[in-house]
Design brief:
The protein is an alpha+beta fold and 366 residues long. It folds into two domains: 93 residues, no CATH class; 235 residues, BirA Bifunctional Protein, domain 2, CATH 3.30.930.10. The longest helix has 40 residues. Bound molecules: phenylalanine. The site of phenylalanine (PHE) has 11 residues, from strand 10 and strand 11.
Length: 366
């Protein structure tokens, strides 16, 4: 029959395969597939003609037609694979962004003062050889309290206004960590001395007013070694306060205090004046408390498997919001979390202006 001779079949095949090659998108490709292999497609119609042929001719023509059908199907399949990639390549080429172009000044981002303050604190302690460590915000009761020498009935637990999570299957209630001190325990469990870590992170207490936020930030420090004593604690923290506030002769005072996990404990105050209503940090007649510290309690060392006869250490913890407010004159704690762009433009920092000891840590805000 006319349409099924070898010559005609070859031209049908060539024609369809050429159309497939030329198809520019998936819709066009689908139309070609329907026109060729669909119910009323060219190849399907030719298949029907086989019925009217005698047995020998039908066998030969059927085989030839099947070859054409396979060729067309293979071409369609190959194109189906290539087309989306071509579309993606074209999209990538047209949407390319030149990342080396300067940013638009009107859209310049600002670094949040809390991020900046954390970077400053880390820069100072990095210079003293501290390494950054971190721990989880959701903490077990053991790490947040018990291992830090705050047993279940200890009054210090009440002072922390802890957020408790619902009980696990085993009846244990996890907590949102009330301080960064649990990272002391995690680090001592994982490592042998010498240890020198600085731990920035989020902390949580159920408290909310002009000077308290339910989520706030702390930075913890821990130094453990052989022969570490109170002189090391004092030298380290005096240097930190002077570098952070940029006042070389800043008076620093160590006032006896109490924390269950340090013994002895000291609160650290810096000098200031409040003349004329304003607050000025530096030599003066007044004091501001800025951090808690102490020699690591031997019980805490023992809880972590250390021999307190062999190793000693000191620890300290500071509130990031508090030192940021003091350094940058930010009057209300709640504004840190308002996401107010005007506030960010005023108090924020240029993102590429990374703090370092040599570049100076006391640039003005903004
Ligand atoms: N964890 C204490 C607090 O949140 C601060 C602190 C840390 C005190 C380390 C001493 C040593 O108040």
């Amino acid at each position: 029959m006319q349409g099924l001779d070898a010559q005609s079949l070859k031209s049908v095949s060539d024609e369809i395969v050429q159309a497939v090659d030329a198809a520019e998108n998936l819709e066009a490709l689908d139309a070609i597939r329907v026109n060729a292999l669909g119910k009323k497609g060219r190849i399907s119609l030719l298949m029907r003609e086989l019925g009217g042929m005698d047995a020998d001719a039908r066998k030969a023509a059927g085989q030839a037609l099947n070859i054409v059908k396979d060729q067309v199907a293979a071409a369609l399949e190959a194109k189906q694979f290539v087309l989306p990639q071509a579309a993606l390549n074209e999209k990538l080429a047209t949407e390319a962004i030149d990342v080396s172009l300067p940013s638009r000044p009107s859209r310049e981002a600002r670094l949040h003062p809390l991020s900046r303050t954390i970077e400053e604190v880390l820069a100072i302690f990095a210079e003293m050889g501290f390494q950054v460590a971190e721990g989880p915000d959701i903490e077990s009761d053991y790490y947040n309290f018990t291992a830090l020498n705050i047993p279940p009935e200890h009054p210090a637990r009440q002072e922390h206004d802890t957020f408790y999570l619902p009980a696990n299957a085993d009846g244990q209630r996890k907590v949102l960590r009330t301080h960064t001190s649990p990272v002391q325990i995690r680090t001592m469990e994982a490592k042998e001395p010498p240890i020198r870590i600085i731990v920035p992170g989020r902390t949580y207490r159920s408290d909310h007013d002009a000077t308290h936020s339910p989520m706030f930030h702390q930075c913890e420090g821990l130094v453990i070694g052989d022969g570490i004593h109170m002189g090391h604690l004092k030298g380290c923290l005096i240097d930190f306060c002077r570098a952070f506030f940029g006042v070389d002769d800043l008076p620093v005072r160590f006032r006896p205090s109490y924390f269950p996990f340090t013994e002895p404990s000291a609160e650290v105050d810096i000098g200031c004046t409040r003349d004329g209503g304003g607050l000025k940090i530096g030599a003066g007649d007044d004091w501001l408390e800025i951090l808690g510290s102490g020699m690591v309690n031997p019980r805490v060392l023992a809880n972590c498997g250390y021999d307190p006869e062999k190793y000693q250490g000191f620890a300290f913890g500071m509130g990031i919001e508090r030192i940021a407010m003091l350094k940058y004159g930010i009057p209300d704690l709640r504004t840190f979390y308002d996401s107010d762009l005007r506030w960010m433009r005023h108090y924020g920092f240029l993102p590429f202006d990374a703090p370092s000891i040599h570049a100076g840590l006391v640039g003005g805000a903004g």
